[in-house]
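Thread: quick sanity check before group meeting

JM: Hey all, I'm pulling together slides for Thursday and realized we never actually wrote out the predicted structure for the chain we discussed last week. Dropping the sequence here so it's in one place. If anyone has concerns about the input, flag it before I start.
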Amino acid sequence: MHMKTAVRRKMTGIKNLIPLVLGIAAISLWADEKIIEGVSCDSSGVVSMQDGIKVFLAHWSDKWQYSDQKWGALKAEPGYPLKKDASLQVKGIWQLKDGIGSFNTNLVISSVNASSFEYEINLQSQEPVNSRLVCLSLVLPAPVFAGKEIFLGDNKLSLPDKLSGEKISQMGKIHKITIPMKGKTLVIEGDYEAGVFDDRAYKTDMFSIKINLLPSSGGIKESRLKLKLNLIENTFRCIDLKKYANMGFKDDVPDDGKGGWTDQGPANDLSCMKPGLITLCSVPFKIIDPDSNNGKACMVFAGPSRDYFIKEARHPHELGESSGIVSSPWHSLASKGY
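JM (edit): ok, ran it. Output follows.
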């Protein structure tokens, strides 16, 4: 009797486990779909990019109740997401929180080429959904992007190291957003309104760029947005500065007026620096080999403590935006606003 009871319990446990296993199997059938290199989309249409960037729909009701597309809030219809040729389509119901309403959602993401894709979203509802704002939210992790600069159109905007307020920029009409990333630059093109916000004000370690759907507020029965996103590889070239170099990295005798480095002797030279190509923050630098350049490998400029170094160096070519490796002894960077 006890054995039969134990068997029945065991079989019941197995029966209860079967739907769970099948559910897990069904979920695992969909892996995030690659759109282009560095960009993928999950089964509910949330886009992920390198550097931790996420792109998803967000909605605030007329009473400021918040809903977004993440965590399965957008339930795909049977047969979706649908991958066809170079496009991915997600159709389903986006159920807003607290019974506010729902949108029939049709999202199409299409790769244009190896570095670009189009994002087109259309929301519809039979009954008006009272909305304070419906937008596409592009979130940037603050640990990655704090202190960096982005562009709204041609206007440069700094993302602050520390929280100083919710709004970094007001909502406004623009056609292009440019975001520097690690080794790449994200350019978002379209005809839209957008603003930049510091979500650390709400205890999340993120910045957000909100791009409005049209219409974006009121009693919404239909709203849409179309964007083109370009993920452009950053290209660099090393400028040959050999003939401008006036010092080597090694200094055997301090304060002899000959150098090298900052003429502070072997206890404070840069003899550990190895020549050749190095990469710092995705930017390549070619370190000059002093043995092949008459002992010269760097430019050391004069200052109050060393007036016998060079005063200036002029390169004949337009450098545009450039990066360099800089050291500054006997110098208060704070006094210069660095």
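AS: nice. The first strand starts at residue 33 and ends at 36. The CA atoms of residues 251 and 260 lie 5 Å apart.
JM: adding both to the slides.
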